From TrEMBL:
Keywords: Membrane, Transmembrane, Transmembrane helix
Chain ranges passing through the membrane: 20-39
Protein name per its UniProtKB record: Uncharacterized protein
Species this chain originates from: Methylobacterium frigidaeris
Length: 52
């Protein structure tokens, strides 16, 4: 992925920032899907706070 961004002229820090933002978006997406599968946001919040 990094080499592809470099090929199109992205600077190293720019490329790393974009890769990090894609990873963050993917993580948030997976967390949202997990919350839905676990029975909603309230249950997910309880799990995160350790009140499970």
């Amino acid at each position: 992925m990094y080499s592809q961004l470099r090929h199109y002229g992205w600077r190293p820090l720019e490329a790393v920032g974009h890769i990090a933002s894609w990873i963050a978006l993917l993580t948030v997406g997976l967390a949202c899907a997990g919350a839905e599968l676990l029975g909603g946001w309230e249950q997910a919040g309880r799990l995160l706070m350790g009140l499970g």
